[in-house]
């Protein structure tokens, strides 16, 4: 693994902390599925963790929660606690396990309560400001890659041990 040096206006994910840092963001964050904007906020929380592109958590008041159904399964994060998953049903299409949330986050991550984070690769498009994001590789992680972060990023083949 060779760290990519950040250019002007960029951050390296290798400078992000572990345990992760949670920060507020006023950038516009949008999620689109089946041509419908299902989330749109300027009040997202951004989670920064070593080797990962940022995770974006959107407040439920800025998400079309009427389009979401609880999905099967849960997972556990050593920092944030137990996550639950969400399916999205819009325009007759089901997007399976498209998002996750923490109904009872632990410790310093209490602000994440009920915010939704989206897998960018499981919907039609996600945006930070007007930039379409690239999904983090792999089936488990849900980071969003934009032009202002550089890697290499955990998630692809051969990176699980990072």
3D architecture notes:
The mean pLDDT is 96. It is built from no helices and 15 strands. It has a single domain (11-146), classed as Metal Binding Protein, Guanine Nucleotide Exchange Factor, Chain A (Beta Complex), CATH 2.170.150. The chain is mainly beta and 162 residues long.
What count of structural domains? 1
Instruction: Report the radius of gyration as a whole number of Å.
Output: 15 Å
CATH-assigned homologous superfamily? Domain of unknown function (DUF427)
What is the string of SSEs from the N terminus onward? EEEEEEEEEEEEEEE
The helix tally amounts to 0
Query: Largest sheet, described in full?
Result: 7 strands, antiparallel
Strand order of the largest sheet: 2-5-6-10-9-8-7
Uncertain residue segments = none
Write the CATH architecture name: Beta Complex
Helix proportion: under 10%
Write down the overall mean pLDDT: 96
Question: Which secondary-structure class do the elements indicate?
Answer: mainly beta
CATH class: Mainly Beta
CATH T-level topology: Metal Binding Protein, Guanine Nucleotide Exchange Factor, Chain A
- Beta-strand content: 35-45%
General form? globular
Distance between the termini: 9 Å
Number of strands: 15
